[in-house]
Structure formats: C-alpha cells, structure tokens
Amino acid sequence: MSLLQEEREIILGNEYVDAFDFDEVAAFVRGAGKDLFISRHFARRDKMLVQPRGGFPTYQQQYALYEYFVEAGVDVLPLTIDSNTRLNDYATAKKMLRLSEENDMDMLNGYPLVTHGYRTTRKMITHFRKPVSLRHGTPDARLLIETAIASGIFEIEGGPITYLLPYSKNFPLDKAFLYWKYVERVCAAYSTLNEPINRESFGPLTATLVPPSITIVIQLLEMLLSLEEGVTSFSVSFAQQGSMIQDIVTGAVLRKLARHYAHQAGCADAAIHLVYHQWMGAFPTNMNYADQLINLATVIAALVGADKIITKTRQEATGIPTREANAKTVADTQYCLRILSGLPHVVDATEEEILTAEVTAIMAAVFNDPADTLWRKVFNCIKRGIIDVPFSPHIINRNEMITIRDAHKNIRIIERGNVPIPDRCYAYERGQCDLTRDTTTIVNNIIRDIGIMQ
C-alpha cells in the first residue's frame, strides 16, 4: 500500500464519514459522464463558461437552487461549502444541518457536503448532468475533496496560499502546503480514470487593493505546485480590479506567463485556463448600480478573453443572495455575452512590459531561495515578505506593501516592502500617483479606494 493510500484511509476513517468504498468511487469516476467534467467543456472552447456562486444547507434547497440555475442557462454549477465544514468542525455542521431541516431555517451559510455524504450528494450531481465546481476556502480540504470527487464534483478550487492568507490568521502555512499536496495527488490520481479533474486557484485573494504582480505570482506558484504532483488541467484566475485596462493587461500577462512557466516546468501539455471573477470587493447597496457593475464585469471578461466568468448578484451588499437573484445574474450574464461581438483587441505595451518584469523578478527570487522543494521556497518567501498580500489577516504575512489607486483607478505600489520589484518598475508605479499629499490624505484615499464601487 502506498503512503498516499495509507493517509487516505486515515482521513476517510473520520467518525463523521459513512463507510468510504474506494473501489466503488473509482468505478464511478471511471464511468462518469463526460458532461460532468469541466475540463471537457474547456476543451470545446466554443464559449465563455458562466458559473455563479451558491450553497444552501439542505439537500432540497440546493436541488431547488440548481433547478433555477439550469433554467437560467448556467454552464457550471457551484457548490459553496458552509463555514463549519471549512473549519473541519463536522460536529457543528451536523448539528446545524439538523436544526436547519427541523426548523425550516438556514442555520448554515453553505452546503455541508461531508455531513450529507457522497452517496446522497451524487444523486443530485448526476441528475443535473452539469459540471460542478467546489467553492470552499478550506486550509485542510483533504476530507472535503475526497467527498466532492466521490460525489461527482470534478473541479476543485483553492490552494495552500489562496485559501489561507485571505481567510486565516493562525493556521500554519507549512501544514497547508502539505495538506494541499495531498489534494493535488488525489486529483491527479483520479484524473487517470476519465477526463482530468480541474484544479482552480482563487485569484481574488483579499479582494482589497492587491496589485496584479502579487496576484499573478501566487497564481503561477499554485499552478506549479499542482502540476508537479501530476495535475494536467488547471485554471488560473483573478478578479475585477477597478480599472478596465489593468484587467486586460493582467489577463494577458497571466495567460502568457502561465504557459511560459508550465513549459519551463516540463508540463507543456497541461491544459491551462483563465478565469475572471466579477467584482469581489464591497458592492453598492443600490441594486441598479450593482446590476451595472455586473454587466461591466461581463464586458471586461470578454475583452480579457476569459475561459470562464464567475458571477456575483445584485444582493451582494445586503446578505446571502436568494436563488432568484443568483439565477437572474446567470441569465443576464449569458445575455450580455451573446450580444457582445466585434470587440477590439486592446493592448497597452508599456503596462504589459512593466507587469511582466515585476512578476518575473518575484518568481526569480522564489526560485533562487535555497530550500530544496518548491513549497518550502514559497513558504520562505512569504515569511520573508518576498510575497506580500495587502490586508491579509495571517500572522506570517508581512503586510509591508502599500498600494493605492492612481487617477485612472489602476492599483499602484507605493511602498514595496521586501517584494523585489525592480527599481525602474517601482519608480514607474510611484510616478503614476500624486504622493505630494500628507500621510493622512493618502490614508483617507486608500480607504476611499477600498470602497470604490459602493
């Protein structure tokens, strides 16, 4: 028995898991319909895929949500996981699910997949015959992804950096790397049975003034960590940043460098996809404005040439969106994509060159770290501030980088901290901003910039 299989049997021996039948699950994946695999839909490349978010506690609610989504023309169904399951607190998830069912009231903020189990959830997934994407935010997702794949969910979002630095304060980063190595290996193993399991990194990070260079570096590193474990289908992603031209440049550089580093790693045959998130920051409370923001994001996604767009709803500022609001966004986004045609090819050669230079400098610093494995190199670089995520709550993140928006709403680095931004690029970034104002004014502008879409 391999070491991985030994670990899998320990993980799946959890008291909150019904008996896990490895042979039955493998047979299910081997015979699963091709339509359940988003990697197959990406390969067709006939249109941008539209995926909403959404997760409710009970099976019946989730089933009804999927009915609404399918009627609205969804391409990819979501399964958003509840916070207790994300924190591996399966006892509380089980209790809250029971209370949700008994009182007809949502006591969880998502679907408790581990509690429902794969045998139950699979009935729903296979009924709708649409690819499903697992959305969670879990540092230790080992049990969760085993349950997801056994259920027929063949896209797994997240990673050791993107699902830790934006969400957690104290969870050990080194453990997250090792737990996600397990995830990659399981996904790679199942990928040999049918179509590939697609892995997707979470590009928005804190969704708060994160400069494109940091976003791209983290996307590339999570991609490489996944590919080195045998994953063959991977999606890099980023979120709407507030500047149309910066989004277009970010998409171009991310796509170009993802292919470059995959090739450099000996994975030229890997399928790499680009995903665009509609605005992930604070939403306007005016629902008409929210609709306009969503439509604008759809146009930008088309200009970026994204392979998939992940939608938001007009109710983002007021609470957990209803299934009706979620379905409306799917239908509106599909309509917007249908009528868009003849879009220009927009290029900003200067911005692309500056961003490419920043990313390659940071990547070089990571690769030059003396550690013996890539994950240890990345760990060391986060600890030293070579990689620094603005507004991350995690204790290991240096939070020395300071960003602000310029007059055109581009995110600019005005204090680089320990991040090895080349001097000429740093001078360019700062040169786009008015830094003659006093510190209080600059801080107030940063606060304004965080809520720019409200």
Can you describe this structure?
There is one protein chain. It is built from 18 helices and 10 strands. Helix 13 (287-304) links the parallel strand 7 and strand 8. The mean pLDDT is 96. The strands form 2 sheets. The protein has an 8-stranded parallel beta sheet, with helices on both faces. A two-stranded antiparallel ribbon has the order 9-10. It has one domain (3-339): Alpha-Beta Barrel (TIM Barrel), CATH 3.20.20.240. The protein is of the alpha/beta class and 454 residues long. The protein is 50% helix and 9% strand.
In sequence order, what are the helices and strands, one letter per element? HHHEHEHHHHEHEHEHEHEHEHHHEEHH
* Overall tally of structural domains: 1
Mean pLDDT: 96
**Uncertain stretches:** none
Residue share in helices?
40-55%
Rg value: 21 Å
CATH fold type: TIM Barrel
- Main pleated-sheet profile: 8 strands, parallel
Number of strands: 10
Distance between the termini: 55 Å
Shape: globular
Q: What structural class results from the helix and strand content?
A: alpha/beta
